Structure formats: C-alpha cells, structure tokens
Amino acid sequence: MPLSEILRYNEEFVASKEYETYHTDKFPTKKMVILSCMDTRLIELLPKAMGLKNGDAKIIKNAGAIVKQPFGSIMRSILVAIYALKAEDVYVIGHHECGMTGLECGPLLDSMKDRGITQEMIEVLSHSGINLEGWLKGFKSVKEGVENSVEMIQNHPLLPKGTPVHGLIIDPDTGKLDLVVDGYANTVNA
C-alpha cells in the first residue's frame, strides 16, 4: 500500500473522528502484557480470541514471540509494562504454522546477499562478536519456542517475584488457544 494512500485514509479517519471509538489511556485495563508473533493472521484474531478490546493489554510483537536476549528490547518492554504501566500478568503466545519453526540462518543470509548485503559486511559483523547464526535461527517447534520465552521471562532477575508468566499457542485459522504453561501454577509458592 503506498504511503500516499495511507495518509489520505488517515486524513479522513481523523476528520470523521473515528478515533473516538478507540479512546483509552496508556494503562492496560486487564493488567496484562502479551508477547505475540508478528504474523499478519493475528492482528485482529488474537485480541478477538482473547476477548480483548482497545486498551485492555499491552501487546508486543516480534518474529515468533521469542525472547532471546534477557536485556534486549522485548524484555525491556515487558518490564516497562509491569513497572510503569501496571501490568500484572505476562502472556507469551505463539501460533501454529509459525515461520520461525525450523528457520535457519543460511537461507536468510542468502536472501540478504541477493538484496545487496555483502559477504564482507556479514564477516565484519561476525568478527565483531555478533552471532548471526544464533540471532537469525528459529526454533524446533512452536511449543519449544513458547516454553523457552516463558522460561527466559520467569527467570529474569528484574521480574517481580510472583509475576504469572503464561504460555499459549493460538491456531491462526480458528483462534483456539492451547495452554502450554500455566503461570499461576508456577507462582503459587513464589
């Protein structure tokens, strides 16, 4: 979609005051922060399948709903949602048929080279200590990806003790949610 089309639509959206339907504040009404995949099928489906409306949750999206770095931007966003925006529960929600399942670095690097990234640049990054193989790699299964992300969040030294961290998998066709990790069961003795 061209930028001009987006801006034209936005002008009409604002002029007709359609934004009033979505008015809320910055605090999540249902006190939850969700880490989900950026898959296009989940944009509207995930909130509807969870019974959420605008303002109910903080939603963070990335490829695969993955937390790989304990001090990266995903974990920082989760901590900000908890400490500054009053979220109490964390939900990691992967989905069936995720493109990160079985994703390997090689084909991505080949695609990058096809689009102008030089082998020299890749080598510079590698020699600079950046592990492209690990950074660009997906997971064996969605369940494993969700479990690993939940574990990374649960064990973070800055996460408040007793914070429930749940893991689920959504079916991108039906919206059915399958429980992988019950965060309440893991916080009973916290």
TrEMBL record:
It catalyses: hydrogencarbonate + H(+) = CO2 + H2O. It is an enzyme of class 4 (lyase). CDD domains: beta_CA_cladeD. The keyword Metal-binding applies. Zn(2+) binds at C37, D39, H95, C98. InterPro entries: Carbonic_anhydrase, Carbonic_anhydrase_sf. The keyword Amino-acid biosynthesis does not apply. GO terms for molecular function: carbonate dehydratase activity; zinc ion binding. Keywords: Metal-binding, Zinc. Its EC number is 4.2.1.1. SMART domains: Pro_CA. Signal peptide: none annotated. Its cofactor is Zn(2+). Binds 1 zinc ion per subunit. Belongs to the beta-class carbonic anhydrase family. This is carbonic anhydrase.
